[in-house]
């Protein structure tokens, strides 16, 4: 698989000679997103996409506070294969996706932090997601629950590696 901007999801079955391009949202078959709570926090997105409310002259689909997933345009930033069947994708605006069938179908979920996650690592049977403003989140149940790991920096984290002893080392902006 190769992933990228605006939900681009590419597959190859011949080692990269030929690629098939699609959108990840075409493969999303379930959601672990509480849309009612999200709509309440962001404004009622279920009634706004095709009509403007309260005399607004800006299409709410273009509002930076609304999510990108429901319009199929999330930037997909990182992908990790957990085992032979399971994969996880970290995306922008707090969205993530997980697959239990080698990437054939995906479930959408939300990270606790609603900013972009730029990387994923596997650390001792857990997943670490890291990204914007120094946010690090950890899940030990394949992304069903995430805990924020507090850090003293707000520098964006962009890369990392897990050492042989299980220590995660992350790097980011501002020599972080």
Alpha-beta classification: mainly beta
Mean pLDDT: 85
Walk across the major sheet and give the strand order: 4-8-7-6-5
Q: Please estimate the helix content.
A: under 10%
**What Rg, in angstroms, do the CA atoms define?**
17 Å
Query: Which stretches are low in confidence, meaning pLDDT under 50 for 5 or more residues running?
Result: 44-65
* Proportion of residues in β-strands: 35-45%
Number of helices: 1
Shape field: globular
Span between termini: 30 Å
Task: Summarize the main sheet.
Answer: 5 strands, mixed
The H-and-E topology, N to C, reads as EEEEHEEEEEEEEEE
> How many runs of DSSP E, i.e. beta strands?
14
Outline the secondary-structure elements.
Elements: E1 2-3, E2 8-11, E3 20-23, E4 28-32, H1 35-42, E5 76-81, E6 87-91, E7 95-99, E8 106-110, E9 117-123, E10 126-131, E11 136-139, E12 147-149, E13 157-162, E14 168-172
Parallel strand pairs: 4-8
Antiparallel strand pairs: 1-2, 2-3, 5-6, 6-7, 7-8, 9-10, 10-11, 11-12, 13-14
Keywords, please?
14 strands, 176 residues, 5-stranded mixed β-sheet, 1 helix, mainly beta
Description:
- With 176 residues, the protein is mainly β.
- 5% of the residues lie in helices and 38% in strands.
- It is built from one helix and 14 strands, in the order E-E-E-E-H-E-E-E-E-E-E-E-E-E-E.
- The protein has a five-stranded mixed β-sheet, with no helix packed on it.
- Strand 13 and strand 14 form a beta hairpin.
- The two termini are 30 Å apart.
């Amino acid at each position: 698989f190769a992933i990228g901007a605006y939900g681009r999801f590419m597959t190859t079955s011949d080692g990269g000679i030929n690629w098939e391009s699609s959108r990840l949202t075409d493969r999303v078959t379930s959601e672990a997103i509480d849309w009612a709570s999200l709509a309440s926090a962001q404004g009622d997105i279920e009634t706004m996409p095709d009509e403007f409310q309260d005399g607004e002259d800006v299409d709410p689909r273009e509002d930076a506070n609304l999510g990108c997933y429901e319009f199929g345009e999330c930037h997909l930033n990182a992908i990790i294969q957990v085992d032979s069947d399971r994969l996880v994708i970290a995306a922008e605006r707090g969205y993530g996706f997980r697959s239990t069938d080698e990437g054939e179908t995906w479930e959408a979920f939300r990270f606790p932090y609603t900013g972009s996650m730029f990387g994923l690592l596997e650390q001792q049977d857990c997943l670490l997601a890291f990204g914007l403003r120094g946010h690090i989140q950890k899940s030990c149940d394949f992304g069903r629950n995430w805990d924020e790991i507090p850090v003293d920096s707000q520098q964006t984290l962009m890369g990392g590696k897990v050492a042989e002893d299980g220590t995660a080392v992350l790097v980011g902006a501002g020599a972080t």
